Amino acid sequence: MLQVFNRNTKFLQKERAATDVENSRKVDYLKEEVASRLCERLLDINRHFPHVLDLGANACNIAHVLTKPNPDPDPSKLDSLPLSTRLSHLTAADSSGTLLYRDADLPFNSSISITREVLQDEEFLPYDENTFDAVLSSLSLHWINNLPSVLSQINRVLKPDAPFIAAMFGGDTLFELRTSLQLADLDRRGGVSTHVSPLADVRDVGGLLGKAGFKMLTVDVDDIIVDYPSTFALMMDLQAMGESNAVLGREMGAIQRDVLLANEGIYRELHGNEDGTLPATFRMIYMIGWKEGEGQPQPLERGSGQINIKDILEGGGGIKEK
């Protein structure tokens, strides 16, 4: 199996980041926002989930969001219950125990039935087949080396006709930082080093879900743009999030000072806003796949459609004659 990321390095980065509790919480703005957008997709599924797995739970951001007021309340009801009432129990699993338990003493824990489990590695799921009624994952899968294997394992631990809903960073995430660092490296050192980790492309995700056995796939993309005062502030936040580079074979040690200074100037020249801030794009890939089960809607056989899409696009709209 091709190894891209050093899993032990990533574990240590997350552990170190979570040790500074105050700063770690301060930079949770991205994880909280993505968890919120992921949970909104749970709203579209009209069912109760007895047991849900949050894989790669980080600081239990999904659990926190689930206990907040319903983002899409029913206007016909006086009281709109939080999404946590849609499930009976949440198992939050992550390899970093320090990060997983960081917020265990916060009030939201009393509003949801939650169990925290420290995993040896998120790439190997220690759960029996047909265990969970849903699996959620927010901003964790982008550090997985063998994504096809993990998706197959997720499919295995789901019960029949149960959903997998996830969000991960996509290929164009931090393209501004990636390009400016490459140009700064070329200018100051005459070569290019890997400073920003490679990410999956949205075009590959649907195929990976299908090969893992998921049905009724939905994949969509959303860009979150955050403005920073400088590239130094951006990189400090990434470090505090536990999202620093963890590629195998990367150049060890800090980036050279002259490269960082050149990067700051190039970033401002190529991507800077008129107000002096620097935009950083985080491209989110959201995916939903269902484990096959009885009674699921099935696609019609190829060629069985009665309406010709060409006629619709050209202003016609006739029904096929048999």
* Mean model confidence by pLDDT: 90
Series of secondary-structure elements, N-terminal to C-terminal: HHHEHEHEEHEHHEHHEH
Q: Which word captures the global form?
A: globular
End-to-end distance, in Å?
Answer: 51 Å
Structural class: alpha/beta
**In percent, how much strand structure appears in the residues?**
15-25%
Number of helices: 11
Radius of gyration: 22 Å
Main sheet: strand order: 3-2-1-4-5-7-6
- What fraction, in percent, of the residue positions are helical? 25-40%
Counted beta strands: 7
Q: Which blocks of ≥5 consecutive residues have pLDDT under 50? A: none
Largest sheet: 7 strands, mixed
Overview of this protein structure:
- With 322 residues, this protein is α/β, with parallel strands linked by helices.
- Helices cover 34% and strands 19% of the residues.
- It is built from 11 helices and 7 strands.
- It has a 7-stranded mixed β-sheet with strand order 3-2-1-4-5-7-6, with helices on both faces.
- Helix 7 (175-189) crosses helix 10.
- The model has no long low-confidence stretch (mean pLDDT 90).
